[in-house]
Write a structure and sequence with these properties.
It is a single chain. With 336 residues, this protein is an alpha/beta fold. It has helices spanning 10-21, 36-45, 54-60, 75-84, 99-112, 126-136, 156-160, 175-191, 283-301, 309-328, and strands at residues 2-6, 27-32, 49-51, 65-68, 88-91, 116-118, 143-151, 194-202, 214-221, 226-232, 242-247, 250-255, 258-264, 332-333. Strands 13-12-11-7-10-9-8-14 form an eight-stranded mixed β-sheet, covered by helices on one side. The relative contact order is 0.16.
Amino acid sequence: MRFALIGAGAIGTVHARLIDALGNEAALVAVVDQNLERGGKLAEQYGAQVYATPAEAYAAEELDAVGICLPSALHADVAIEALEAGKHVIVEKPVDITLEAADRLIAAQQATGLTVSVISQRRFQPPVAQIRAAIDGGALGRVTSGIAESAFFRPQSYYDGDDWRGTLAVDGGGALMNQGIHALDLLVWMLGRPVRVSAQTGRLAHEGIEVEDLAGASIVFESGAIGLMLASTAAYPGRPVRLTIHGDQGTAVLDDDALAYFASANGEAPKAPALPGPGDWGPVELAHLAQYRDFIAAVRDGRPPAVTLEAGRRSLATVLAVYESARTGRPVELED
């Protein structure tokens, strides 16, 4: 599969490395960035060509797919442009920063029939897959509650390094929208459709930003299960994502990228799947690579990817409900 990457910043560099690691499955042939010097360096590293705009890349290269690695508020518009040019799309999280933008992208995907996946690589981690399989197999019984913690740390320099970081107009949100959304996506994937959110947010450890560095939420799901979410970029020195799922027949805990605890009245934990990849890569990197493999297989087989646009929209809707509840001081009802 011949890829173009749109955006040669930090996350674009990660995606380039992922595509290169796929070997014969994929090739990076174009890098698009308004900063031609930055884009040129990344392109040269992987034997690709650099372009200033997506349209230039689409006109010059035979491309199958596009990886979108831009600031969040640009995701939907650039993805729609790629779909209209006949390219499949894998887009970084969040899908965008508004539901209106997400819905426009969903409409474009449906109109073109092309494949679009939203990055949520943690779903592919073996211990996460074990927990989901335990739920699907009934090992936890009826799922009753879940707790997701994304207690990260970002220094002030993180926000100061790019003028769009920490802005409502482009970043769309802070610790929850950009870091905690991964853990929130896992909570929603495990517990189902959220129907009500009550939340608080704060900006406690950073200056000169418009977004939160701390968010806490209580989420009621359609099944009656209750979830708790903590997202922070103000938790020095930062901890790995922690996810706890409780059921009336068992409990499973993800911590430090491992299945740290499992108990079930119905049996043992499901077997963990293997993730192929470079031996020196960490578990989140290998999961990221696995999502790329799933995307390629989805295109090849004509099936939906494991992480669909609709899944990305649901996570975004939950994030936005957290922000609305924190702003108004009232619970927010969600609709699909």
